[in-house]
Amino acid sequence: GIVALATHAAAVAHELNTPLATMLLTLEELEERDDVPGTLDEDVALLHSLADTCRQRVRELARAGMATEGIDPEQVIERWRLLRPAVELSRTGILAPGTRIDAAAGHLIQALLDNAADASLAAGNTRVDLEADANGVRGEIRDHGKGFDPQRSFLPGRLFDSGKPGGLGLGLALSHATVERLGGELNLHAVESGGARVSFRLPPRITVRP
Asked: pLDDT, tens digit, for every residue of 22-77?
C-alpha cells in the first residue's frame, strides 16, 4: 500500500505543478491590481504564501528520491506554522544552528504535528506541544485532544484507517513506515489529563552534515 501510494503521489505531484503555477500567477496579478479592496490585501497575501508553499512541497516530492543534502528542521516547523495558523505551538528544546536532517525525518515531524493539531482542534483546543533534542534525533509531540483508550493498539497504524471525521488515514501509517525505514522507534502514550503523546527516536545518521 505504501509503494502504491508513493507511485500515485508522484503522478499527482506532476499534475499539480501546472495549476499551482497558474494560481501563483493569478495571485501575483491580484496583488498588483489597484481595484482590489485593501481589506483583502492580507487574505490575498496569505493565499499567495500558501500556494507557494504547496508548490515548493510538490517540487520537493519530485526530487525526494535524489535528495542527499538534508533539510533544515526549523524550516519544516515554520512552514507547518504557516499552514496551520489556528494552532498554538508550544516548544521545548532548541535545535542546534545549522542542523540538517534526512528529508524523511522532516516529513515525519510534519505528519505528527498535523495529527496532533487535528486531535486538539477536534476537542476545541488550539494547543500542540513539541519537544525535541538539539539534533532533532529524539522528540515528543503532544496533543490536547480527547485522548484514546490505552487498551487499544494504534501502532503500527493501518493505511487509510482514520478515526477522525474526514481523515485520510495516512498520518500514523506513514509515520510508522518512515520510522521503520530509518531504523528508529515510534511510541504512542495516553495522557491521564487528556490527549496523547507521540514520541520518536531516530538513529544519529539522520543528521546530515553540511
From this structure: 889 999 888 888 887 878 888 888 888 888 888 887 877 766 655 556 788 888 89
Stated as kind and residue range, the H or E segment containing 173 is helix 171-182
- Distance from chain centroid for Cα 10: 18
CA–CA separation, 39 and 61 (whole Å)? 35
Burial per residue of 71-107, b for 16 or more beta-carbon CB atoms within 10 angstroms, e otherwise: bbbeebbeebeebbeebebeeeeebeeebbbbbbbbb
Q: Which of 127, 39, 59, 122 has its CA nearest to residue 89?
A: 127
- Which string of DSSP letters, residue by residue, matches 51-91? HHHHHHHHHHHHHGGG--S-B-HHHHHHHHHHH-TTSEEEE
What does the alpha-carbon distance between residue 153 and residue 155 come to, in Å, rounded to a whole number?
A: 6
Q: Nearest-CA neighbor of 80 among 113, 108, 44, 49? A: 113
pTM assigned to the model: 0.69
Distance of CA 157 to the CA centre of its chain: 17
Q: Is 158 helix (H, G, I), strand (E, B) or coil?
A: coil
Residue type, 30: L
Could you identify the residue written with the cell 526549523?
A: 74
The sheet with strand 138-143 has its strands ordered as: 88-92, 127-132, 138-143, 196-201, 185-190
